[in-house]
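[Automated response] Your request has been received and processed.

Submitted sequence:
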Amino acid sequence: MKRLAELGAEVSASLEEARTRGDAMSRVRAKIVAREVPHLRATRHRRRAYPNLRLGAAAALALAAAIALTAFFAWPHKPLEAQGVEAESPPSLSFIVGEGSHELPGATGAFIAAPEAAETRVQFSDGSTLRLAPDARLRVAEVARNGARVLVESGTVHVSVVHRDDTRWSVAAGPFEVQVTGTQFDVVYDPASSSLAVRMTEGSVVVHGCGLLGAEGRRLTTGEQLEVSCKDKTSSASAPDTSPDDTATPDGEQTRSKASTPSTVRPAEPSPSAQPTVRTSKSERIDTSRSVVDLARKGSHAEAMTAAEANGFDTTCAALSGPELLLLGDAARYAGRFDRATEALEIARRRFAGSDAAATAAFELGRIAMDVRRELTVAGDHFETYLRERPTGSLAREALGRAIEARSRAGDSARAERLAVRYLAAYPDGPHAKLARKLSSADPDPRTP
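Generated structure:
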């Protein structure tokens, strides 16, 4: 109110000054008019009042504007969010795959594979990193402004997440999930045995999965290790040895007189499941198939398989679309049911031949044949099937690289070389480029002196 009073005083002074100037001008005009002919005096008299009116109107407008501005800035304002106006959201994280001249922009959902003899780094814009050990494979499934969700397909991955107040990261591997806020650890996943190992370097994580770690999961801190196997229904953890029996060597290194003893974690008792009900209605069978899809999307892989088999696996597959069959195949793989995964993928190829889903099913069949069953020739056939059906598809680079691996390891060097030449022509800096150059005599590495 004090500021408003000051503005009012300033406006009053301006008005008085304007009025004084107006009176002076009026007196001057009166003298001029007195010398003019009489018939012009009336006209000049009417015009004489106009300048004062204009000055008064301008002053009134200035006063109104001053009052409005004072009220606007003095009145308490709500933040934009409270007014229903959303502030611009911070951008999601981005990431780069590879290092140096081999760096490539990362794509959400794309497969990232480390070659057989070298590591591969994934660098995120927040400073977090993933380092894939040789032959490890993963996907960055989702990214947000404060974290990401990573799916480890197989192998060993070193995870280093930069901690912030709202950091939200998760690393999934088959039926397992590791919740991360800011830490460093190694995760090792073997899809054939559906087993997971987590080795902590620093920080803490919470591991869930398989119903073996309790409803709230198992918390691990610096130095602890955890090994879990869904197939064997076993779980064991070991803590760092902090006993006083450690002695220092002259080099300052620690030697232990006894090894730390793993403490066995007792598996949680499985909750009793209701007996499956026999379905006779077609609409009921479709509803059950929908629930299978919902469970798979939520990551409840074992539950999805239980529901699919209770409903009849063939019946469930018959009610699903091509993309849903791929989802069911993923759930079966993550649950360690590779027989069911193969069945779902083969149904997708038969029912939806020529579609994107059928081509992706061929790629997934190749992965099962190569990573789980070690059937290299069969794997190569599946990968090349994908390439024939989708030569420029989203999985083409990975399919071509894995086809080279499969043919080379199966001893089919001539075919591996032809694929290697093709790979170098399309992806000279791809993750399999080093292997391709090794196999291809027609395209030596130009960076080698």
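Summary generated for your ticket: The first strand starts at residue 95 and ends at 97. The mean pLDDT is 75.
If you did not submit this request, please reply to this message.
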